[in-house]
Design a protein that fits this description.
By secondary structure, the protein is an alpha/beta fold. The protein has 12 helices and 8 strands. An 8-stranded mixed beta sheet has the order 3-2-4-1-5-6-7-8, sandwiched between helices. α2 (75-101) crosses α12, α5 crosses α12 and α9 (275-289) packs across α10 (308-320). The longest helix is centred in the N-terminal third of the chain and has 29 residues, at 3-31.
Length: 379
């Protein structure tokens, strides 16, 4: 074979191979996907894939609030605080009397000053005259000197407060039915707050309690009482605003009977627009309640700072309902201790509870000796 022929064959072979390679490259180029521009933040050599947005997470189920019940303070702690608070607020009366009785000469002017001091302290005219007469007799007959004046004064003040009065609360169930306590008083005296604090006193004594929000003319009273009940796990029976107070009172006692509780405490309306309307309303509440269970206690709440003005309220309620005990609020403030004597004399019923502060457990059983010692600054 000649050299020319060999050269022609090689040239054709090279041409065929070039055509085949070109066709393969063209086919592969058509199969590649179009080029995507990479985001500026993507690193070189990586491709950021577009992902569909994630579905929003399902909202969590709302959790019921965890209510931690409070454990109210017992009677012993309340009495300690009562003694401390009264000593700070009431000691002026006793100290003033002691200064007068300790004078070298007790003339008529001195006895008049003693009378003025007692009347100014809201003791009342009749109790004041009685106390002064007893003091004059003892100081003269017994020959009491200044060193013994404090002892004599303490004994006579204690007799005036009358420690023989029964100050226990009638809160024991009877014949399978709860004790029913009606709490009465004018709006603003601290009535609803006293009901809430009384519930704490009873819970501290391990009594089961139902509260009745029968002051239906004040929406705030219902809300306030419900809050007091929630704090110590006590159920509160309520009604629509403006509804019949007697119906709420009836339902409260019915609930207490069905649940077998120890005590039902009912907060009554305190509107004092006119005596006749108040008498009709409270009388109806009491009659309706007694269809379920007898009323064992009627507590009258008085603001101790109103002094003799509070006596007017006391007389109205005495005529309306059979008051069995008195709750004196705000006795730790500007109140004058003599109101204790005056209101007991006026109504013939004992002071059973006193409020000595704004705290939840600042309602304490009234103790005559503690009170008199506080008057004399001996708390």
């Amino acid at each position: 074979m000649s050299a020319v022929l060999i050269f022609i064959i090689l040239a054709v072979a090279i041409l065929v191979i070039g055509l085949v390679v070109g066709l393969v490259a063209l086919v592969n180029g058509r199969k590649q996907p179009p080029r995507r521009d990479l985001p500026a933040s993507a690193p070189t050599g990586t491709i950021t894939e577009e992902r569909p947005p994630e579905a929003p997470e399902a909202p969590e189920e709302p959790q019921a609030p965890v209510i931690t019940l409070e454990r109210p303070e017992g009677t012993a702690g309340r009495l300690v605080r009562l003694r401390q608070r009264l000593s700070r607020s009431q000691g002026g009366l006793g100290r003033g009397l002691l200064l007068l009785l300790s004078r070298d000469r007790l003339d008529e002017d001195t006895w008049e000053e003693i009378e003025d001091t007692l009347i100014t302290a809201d003791v009342g005219v009749a109790p004041t005259q009685e106390l002064v007469e007893r003091l004059r007799t003892r100081m003269r007959v017994e020959g009491v000197d200044a060193s013994d004046a404090a002892t004599v004064l303490r004994e006579e003040l204690l007799a005036l407060v009358d420690p023989a009065m029964d100050r226990t609360l009638a809160t024991a169930p009877s014949d399978g039915k709860p004790a029913v306590v009606l709490v009465v008083g004018v709006n603003g005296a601290g009535k609803t707050t006293s009901v809430g604090k009384l519930a704490r006193v009873l819970v501290a004594e391990d009594k089961s309690v139902v509260l009745g929000a029968a002051d239906t003319f004040r929406a705030a009273a219902t809300e306030q009482l419900s809050t007091w009940g929630e704090r110590v796990g006590v159920d509160v029976v309520t009604g629509p605003e403006g509804s019949d107070p007697a119906s709420v009172a009836f339902e409260s006692v019915r609930t207490g009977v069905e649940r077998g509780v120890d005590v039902v405490v009912i907060d009554t309306a305190g509107r004092l627009q006119n005596k006749a309307g108040l008498m009709d309303e409270l009388g109806k509440v009491k009659r309706v309640v007694e269809k379920q269970a007898p009323v064992s206690e009627v507590l009258l709440v008085l603001d101790a700072t109103t002094g003799q003005n509070g006596m007017v309220q006391a007389r109205v309620f005495r005529d309306v309902v059979d008051v069995t005990g008195i709750v004196l609020t705000k006795l730790d403030g500007s109140a004058k201790g003599g109101i204790v004597v005056a209101v007991q004399r006026e109504l013939g019923v004992p002071v059973k509870l006193v409020g000595v502060g704004e705290g939840a457990d600042d309602l304490a059983p009234f103790d005559p000796e503690t009170f008199v010692d506080a008057l004399l600054g001996q708390g």
